[in-house]
Amino acid sequence: MEHVVNVEQGHLSGVLQGSILVYRGIPFAAPPTGNLRWRAPQPPESWQGVRAAETFAPACWQSLEYCKAVGGGDPGQFSEDCLYLNIWTPARRDNKPLPVMVWLHGGGYTIGAGSLPPYDGAALAARGVVLVTINYRLGHLGFFAHPALDAENPEGPVHNFALLDQIAALKWVQQNIAAFGGDAANVTLFGESAGARSVLSLLASPLASGLFHKGIIQSAYTLPDVDRRKALKRGVAVAEHFGLENASAEALRSLPASELWALEAPLNIGPTPISGDIVLPEPMLDTFFAGRQHRMPLMIGSNSDEASVLSYFGIDPAGQVELLRREKRLGLGLIKLLYPGVKGDTELGRQVCRDMAFTTLGFVVMQAQQRVGQPCWRYYFDYVAEAGRETYANGTWHGDEVAYVFNTLQLSPPTSEYVNERDLTFAAHIGDYWVNFARSAGEHAKALPGPISWPASIKGRDRTLRLGVHLRAKFKVEKRFMRMRMQLFKRVMKHHVTLE
After folding, report:
1. What is the CATH number of the domain that holds 302?
2. Dihedral, 411, 417, 419, 421 alpha carbons, nearest 10
3. Total domain count for the chain?
4. What is the pTM for the complete model shown?
5. What radius of gyration, in Å, describes the C-alpha atoms of the chain?
6. Which residue range forms the structural domain that includes residue 416?
7. End-to-end CA distance of the chain
8. What confidence tens digit (pLDDT) does each residue in 133-186 have?
9. Could you read off the pLDDT of 21-58 as tens digits, one per residue?
10. pLDDT of residue 493 exceeding 90
11. Residue 206 class from Cβ within 10 Å (0-12 exposed, 13-18 middle, 19+ buried)?
12. Residues noted as catalytic
């Protein structure tokens, strides 16, 4: 039986997998190719007849090896024509529209795709949500500044094409998700790493207002946005690298997409958006420090061994401690007081980098939420699958919570090789919390149901739910979790957390 739905562009047929209908490779924008490269995404073309939405679309240009190693698996084919989304929805539903969850994948804005195995939406959809995963432009195709492109935009500079893609996908969801049983008035935007950084960026973007109603921020990082002037200099340097002096927009658009992603430092892009264009008029962190983010309930958290990712950014945790030793402004003595019992530069550096670059952001966002009278649920993820505890003795690696959220441990190597029933039981609780947030979190909600009640940090309350404690399956609410460290790192964040 064909499962045909009608969207604004035409009819789509999906695939029934058990009790879940899956629609893959749905275009939410016109291909951003040719003259549409480095422009805001345009509406997708309509089609005649029934379009089969049965296979995933290509991923944006990226490094295949890097994505396989750390990005969640094999992204398949690459193309500059990559603006597609995928939908999982329960096949049997009553007339009551379901909460919608829209996933933004991570990968430092250089790797990843909405089609990767860990992001299979079936287990979340089975809990009664409509789950959407999207692709967005990566690398220089997603973030680029050049004087020749500025000249094309009289209403103001445009550099964050990847964020505009995410906004276009959210607009498509507003227009079409009812056809899949989804409630366009209850959309939760969630993401991990660069995807979580994107949720924060859209919370700060005037262009995203009203397009989603709740946000979940998994392991976003405090690295500052790239200043527009610096991005313009880099864009000129990239053009010159390809032999284009004083390049025209036309000449830039003729560069092969397959060569841009492979550029090495200093010509590659950093893992943060560009501030100073019409998408992000001011740096995202400034928006949150000032409490000017869009008002909605948020969940935010990070993992116990986030420092595992820093080597990919060229940061050595032990070297960071050595820097603190030389740097008089922020005393190493004070830091050691905040980490009692931590021995050696490597271990101290691992924890300090984790907290400065990741944990502190949860504290900053909680305080921003309290300023605007909106609830914030904070978590700290510290569970490791039983058979992996010797390998991951320092805690949960950057990105390793994703397979628990999606209940895709069996699809996500290396865990898929050794996952057991107890790991799967723990994962089921995590998925339940996320879906409960999507279903029931509201401005006046005080707690989320689950194995233990998860209280929101409303005004005057600072609470964090530990999802796993010392790698074991346990849930525990902590008051004022790491509070002294958070207060210190929030103060010094602007000076210290950079990739320079």
Report:
1. 3.40.50.1820
2. 90
3. 1
4. 0.97
5. 22
6. 4-496
7. 57
8. 999 999 999 999 999 999 999 999 999 999 999 999 999 999 999 999 999 999
9. 999 999 999 999 999 999 999 999 999 999 999 999 99
10. no
11. exposed
12. 193, 306, 398
